[in-house]
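Note to self: keep these together.
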Amino acid sequence: MVERAYDTQDGLYDVAWSEINENQLIVSSGDGSIKMFDTTLPDYPIQNWQEHQREVFSVDWNLITKDIFSSGSWDHTVKIWNPQSPRSLQTYTEHTQCVYSTSWSPYNPTRLASASGDQTVKIWDLSSPRSAQTIRAHHNEILSVDWNKYQDHMLVTGSVDKTIKVWDLRRPDREVICLAGHEFAVRRVKWSPHRANILGSAGYDMSARFWDTAAPPGQNLIHVHDAHTEFVLGLDFNLYREGQVATCAWDEKLNIFTPPPLLRP
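Structure:
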């Protein structure tokens, strides 16, 4: 049963709940806009930002300060927003291709990572207009990036080159580990909120895969979820029930399951 539905003028690419208001959420649109809705109000958004020149592919809310969010767009920019402000607070313009993913550090409230079609991941600090660090992470477009929840210097990236790479920002010249197994582009990567060495990935090969970065080389792939019949675009871990995962795909299905290797003995 759908509790509330809103119509918009274009396709929607991402959604993020507010961290300060349980009734509010932001969505990113194909028309370049970002809209905020309040579930207590029908029909129309309560805020509409129209700055991006192309599709807005991702939005991410800051988990620490809770009062700002980021967006990444096909116009090559990353923007920082406050819901109370009619204009963006900051715009970063160093990427030379689409920005597919932005992710706030769970440790540092001013630190943000962005992943782009220009094959780089950039680390930003809100105190500076320039990127603090650039990693040429893959040999193809990077579609997803996520921070490790237990090690503040660790990132994971997923790429069109079919690989997943784990990075230590203190030694960015090469990846800590490269995980191969997807047969097509990796659309989403996500660290477990419960275990520092477990991550999940979703891809255009219609699978979701789960990895143990602490396992011996060649034994990192611990589970393949192949119940979807179309591209798998979204994956997230349940914060409140360890091991439970949700995936969504173009087969119009939302799957909720617990991979057997993620069950604690």
